[in-house]
Amino acid sequence: MTLTKSMVLASAVALSPAVLAGGTHGHGHGSSIGEPGVASEASRTITVELYDNYYEPEQIEVSAGETVRFVLENKGNLVHEFNIGTPSMHEAHQEEMMMMVEHGVIQGGKLNHHMMEMDMGNGHSMKHDDPNSVLIEPGKSGEIVWTFSNESNIEFACNVPGHYQAGMYGDVTFK
User: Fold this and answer.
1) What SS3 state is found at 112?
2) Spans of all domains in the chain
3) Distance between CA 18 and CA 16 in Å, rounded?
4) In sequence order, which residues have a C-beta less than 8 Å from that of residue 174 and are 6 or more positions away?
5) Which residues form the signal peptide (predicted)?
6) Got the DSSP string for 41-100?
């Protein structure tokens, strides 16, 4: 968890008080999965609806090097995440998301924004602000713009405790 990650492009992620881009948890973007994109360079927009506990659509097809704008709408009753990463990235991130629940940041259907600012020591907090991820309360929406590399093992997933295990993940396939 570092607070020094600052690669969020203002045009790449739309933030509101109820929508927070994902994690100073250290599992953000990486060259193997891609990098933050610029909205004006997106080849298309894909709307993804987040339900309790699945996505619609459940699979997304992209091309290597393609920039996609994702519009994310939480249609469920719980807080959900849309996180682009590899299965191992999701597994590591789930442990940190559990800490967010244990400290009262994620409270079922709402986020405690005050607790997200909590000082965990050594420059760490519960902020959730990597450009490959967004945490969304019910009835709210968010956005991620992402440029994909040629990684063959990418998923989008919700890493809120229990959600991934309940089937809330989807495959990113390459053309």
Assistant:
1) coil
2) 19-174
3) 5
4) 61, 62, 63, 64, 148, 150, 152
5) 1-21
6) G-SEEEEEEEETTEEESSEEEE-TT-EEEEEEEE-SSS-EEEEEE-HHHHHHHHHHHHHH
Q: Residue 129 CB: number of other CB atoms within 10 A?
A: 23
Which is it for the CA torsion 66, 158, 13, 102, positive or negative? negative
Give residue-wise pLDDT tens across range 59-115: 999 999 999 999 999 999 999 999 999 999 999 889 888 888 988 889 999 988 887
Q: Which amino acid is at 145?
A: V
Peptide bond into 53 cis (omega under 30): yes
Write out the two tokens for 34. Answer: 């891609």
CB 54 within 8 A of CB 157: no
Architecture of the structural domain at 19-174: Sandwich (2.60)
